[in-house]
From TrEMBL:
This is Chaperone DnaJ-domain superfamily protein isoform 1. The lineage of its organism: Eukaryota, Viridiplantae, Streptophyta, Embryophyta, Tracheophyta. Probable component of the PAM complex at least composed of a mitochondrial HSP70 protein, TIMM44 and TIMM14. The complex interacts with the TIMM23 component of the TIM17:23 complex. GO terms for biological process: protein import into mitochondrial matrix. The keyword Transmembrane helix applies.
Length: 151
């Protein structure tokens, strides 16, 4: 050290200077070591989030599509069949008792035939369901007031 004059320090000043030097060096060392640690932690978190996102997307794409057109009636049959329930069984529109335009006899008969072909006892269908389908046709055509099922 050329041209710099060193002044002798007292013992307290010397210890204090060493303490500041050592603590400052350790603090800098910890700061310099912490930066790569936190950067690695951020990269690992981003990788895990990306992996989770990819798995969630693949699970979303693999699931079965849900039909949004029509929701089927959930629940059993009512003790006495109503026109609403008969319309649900046959799949025809029924708005009210006074509005027969939506459920014409031709539409009811055609719907009955389609549903009966799919559920006929000779083709492996249930006798109970066949009787309910026939009852629904009779209720929609006004032949009975309901509960004409043999079951």
């Amino acid at each position: 050290m050329l041209g710099v004059e060193r002044v002798p320090l007292s013992l307290d000043q010397s210890l204090q200077s060493m303490h500041q030097h050592i603590c400052g060096t350790l603090e800098n060392r910890y700061v310099h070591q912490a930066t790569p640690f936190f950067a690695g932690l951020a990269v690992a978190a981003a990788a895990l989030a990306g992996r989770y996102g990819i798995h969630a997307w693949q699970a979303f794409k693999a699931r079965q599509p849900t039909p949004r057109i029509r929701k089927f009636y959930e629940g059993g049959f009512q003790p006495t069949m109503t026109r609403r329930e008969a319309a649900l069984i046959l799949g025809v529109r029924f708005l009210s008792i006074h509005d027969r335009e939506n459920a014409t006899p031709d539409k009811v008969k055609e719907a009955h035939k389609k549903v009966m072909v799919a559920n006929h006892p000779d083709a492996g269908g249930s006798h109970y369901l066949a009787s309910k389908i026939n009852e629904a046709k009779d209720v929609m055509l006004g032949k009975t007031k309901g509960s004409g099922s043999a079951f």
